[in-house]
């Protein structure tokens, strides 16, 4: 027994000596490293960004060839830790990362990336990132689906803890006979108030509020069909839905693939308490396609997109403007319609308006025509100042599609989906909203394996930020699935 | 009944029986199922990567399919495919022999019985090899259990290995539970046997319950039945027969052993058992030939294989062997006719019924996108080829064919970043990494594409002016590229098969601009028909109709005129000589 202990102690001493000698020799070499004066290429690109103080470790690959890699993390010139690698994969352990977030909170931290080449160690330009004191909502909810045309395989709605790499399913279609599910939506970033739709055999809108889950049939004889694109009124008692007749066709040229368009669309409002649906002629006119409802944070106005009803053959002439209609949550009465931005006049089309939590801005996607921006590479994010009605094309856009976006509950962060990485698969990007209406350089949702996005063949669809974990899982929803839907009633046009 | 052979000779006979059976099974798969095995290989993409493995760990019972796909990747080599299947089937037989021997029966013949079911199952392209792997794991587990005499060790083995078995093979482990419960009661016959049996029963029911409630997200019933009842099996009765047969024989042996109080019962090798063996092999052969083997599907898979390898004459050769009418067969036949330059001359040599043989109708299933995308690639309708390949990848799961097509179409479209994603996946395979290496070179240096004849030709035909089409887009493709000869021939075939002679006549002028030296025979026939109908000369400038065609037309009319206006009689009369002409099709064939 004693012999074993002695053996272990000796072995440990040797190991420590070996590790120390390695570190010293490594440090010695690195300290003599030649400065290349070049920016290192890392993927994902986590350089020159502002990150929230509660984000998961930013792991990345150094896309340069070398025999050894070293990333030295510093704050205020002091080294916090260093990560070495022989493959170029820089994975920061969560403990170390949290320490960095704590030390460098509200400050900048730097990363020196050194590579061992045959001629010795070389150093690239220092990467400087900023840690914002503005925290991000804790969870990101998204649907994972192949960016396909008509077919789908396994899909699900998942929630990701943004401070770690933990991802949990809210619902997966392996539990529901492979059906489609879509349009998850939350009330003011609250995980306690959620809804999403399931299609086919288990069809219905699943509405979750304060621990109660309801299965609704929102299709009525007086509306075009079931509710589609939803928006929760901040009062938690009303949900505006678009109701659409959707068709899709396929393009023949390389740059374009799919055209998804409405042949009819209206907006309806669902009263959660009474299970009633109502609408107004102003938002459900035959002469126009109304879609993408979005409530203002005070719940008194409903923003929506509207286009002149045009035959699908002239799909390139379907262009949506941005409108607003007032609404009284007490009486369920609509007021007058206000034109917010006439995009069609400028040969453009608006989709997915989302009002900032302070009510000052509306962010939307703008493309050349149509409303299904995800298949429009020209789709970019724009910010409209509600007071001045001026719009601004955001600096966070890329050459590829920018589409669905959500404000954080504080209005300080934005998550949006973009196809910039590989032109097809949508990934969620975060950006910090700064005073004056500008955004910082976006960064992609961090993954434990930095090569994750290269292999992953599903799109992150409808990224929604929520403040806490959604207390739903596939088992709970599968149980609800077996129940009969609550049939909603259409009461009248208001 | 006394053995009529000495011990060593009877052993020899046993080995001979096993050896002959092995060779026969191997030859059956090698010679009669090779295309079906190729097809199976095309429907999986085994990758040496952790995320691929991880995708099989989310649900109990999926790992047997991981192992199954590992084996299936080798089916790309015909010999290996047949050998692996024979080996798997033999292993089941060997395990059942060992299990029965342990239980108290020594009979080679009885142990060969599962082979008939397995051969039948493996003759179907819808049967998943993973299920056979599952059976092997169950039998191994049960055999291991029966080997352990020590009670405590046996219980520890039983419970721990069952957990692993359940995770790997799902509900098949429950099937294994029946064996060990019977073993506890009838084989070990200890005082605690009934208690142990009850414990095993409760354990087998409780573990799936705990799994579905707390560990895995799967439908409640799947915890007890997946991959049963027979997920991935289209020959369900045969699979039921297999698992019942294995169990019933085992049960019968145990009962027999318990009541006869005899450790081993050896089926003697004598005249009767030898006759029985011969009869069994003969009956199995007849059963497999007429009930299990599907020659029509094999022909189709053969055509599919040769379409992939571009051996178009072989496609036609197999098509000629096919008895009856099948849309998929006709679809590949027409493609091969074009590829061999025979579409305008021989399209009516095959049983055309409207335009369904030119294109597969879109359906959101595994079949339509997998086979149906082929035509778009050859037509140079690249976006559609890309779309169908993508749909196929999603509907059928990752498969080499769709991924390769996605790589090619994205390279043609200049979307290199997307192509790289699929190349990365192919890099992780055993058989496609070399293919991937070639095309990765194109991504790294796109100018190299200029030296690739296939891609250069496809790029030449790329569509520049957008259009939306609900079918093959032939008119639009021709409008974009009047030199798209395949689009022209398919368009003319569409007109002919739709009996749209007006449009056929209106487009015959394109022969000249497409560089035809003479009018294809079927076109000549149709032109003569049109000229008689429209009463004007429609022969394009610089062309003439062969005298032989005119003579045949006269003969055709003469034969019809002999039938006195009886349409059915006329059809029967002219069919032997003129059944392969445009005239016959236009006059007599129902398009539907």
Could you name the ranges of chain B where pLDDT drops below 50 across 5 or more consecutive residues?
none
Q: Report the CATH topology name of the largest domain in chain A.
A: Neuraminidase
- Derived structural class of chain A: mainly beta
- What is the total number of structural domains of chain A? 2
Which helices and strands occur, and which strands form pairs?
The complex is a heterodimer of chains A (494) and B (592).
Chain A: H1 2-31, E1 34-35, E2 42-43, E3 50-52, E4 60-62, E5 68-75, E6 78-85, E7 89-90, H2 94-103, E8 108-117, E9 120-123, E10 127-132, E11 139-145, E12 156-161, E13 167-172, E14 181-187, E15 190-198, E16 204-209, E17 212-217, E18 230-232, E19 238-250, E20 258-271, E21 276-279, E22 288-295, E23 301-308, E24 320-328, E25 333-341, E26 349-355, E27 361-367, E28 380-385, E29 390-393, E30 402-407, E31 413-418, E32 427-434, E33 438-439, E34 443-444, H3 452-455, E35 459-466, H4 474-481, E36 486-487, E37 489-493
Chain B: H1 7-32, H2 34-42, H3 50-54, H4 63-72, H5 78-103, E1 105-106, H6 108-122, H7 129-147, H8 151-169, H9 172-188, H10 193-215, H11 222-225, H12 236-260, E2 265-266, H13 271-292, H14 295-309, H15 312-321, H16 327-339, H17 343-346, H18 367-372, H19 374-379, H20 382-396, H21 400-412, H22 416-427, H23 433-444, H24 453-460, H25 474-480, H26 485-497, H27 501-507, H28 510-513, H29 521-534, H30 547-561, H31 567-578, H32 582-588
Parallel strand pairs in B: 1-2
Helix pairs in contact in B: 1-5, 1-6, 2-14, 4-7, 5-6, 5-7, 5-12, 6-12, 6-13, 7-8, 7-9, 8-9, 8-10, 9-10, 9-12, 14-15, 14-16, 15-16, 20-21, 21-22, 21-23, 22-23, 25-26, 26-27, 27-29, 30-31, 31-32
What can you see in these coordinates?
- The complex is a heterodimer of chains A (494) and B (592).
- Chain A is globular and about 80 Å long.
- Chain A has two domains: 33-132, Immunoglobulin-like (Sandwich), CATH 2.60.40; 139-489, 6 Propeller (Neuraminidase), CATH 2.120.10.30.
- In chain A, the strands form eight sheets. In chain A, strands 1, 3, 5, 6, 8, 9 and 10 form a seven-stranded mixed beta sheet that branches.
- Chain A is mainly beta and 494 residues long.
- With 592 residues, chain B is mostly helical.
- Among the domains of chain B are: 7-293, no CATH class; 474-588, no CATH class.
- Chain B has a two-stranded parallel sheet with strand order 1-2.
- The chains are: A mainly beta (494), B mainly alpha (592).
- The interface between A and B is large, with 32 and 45 residues.
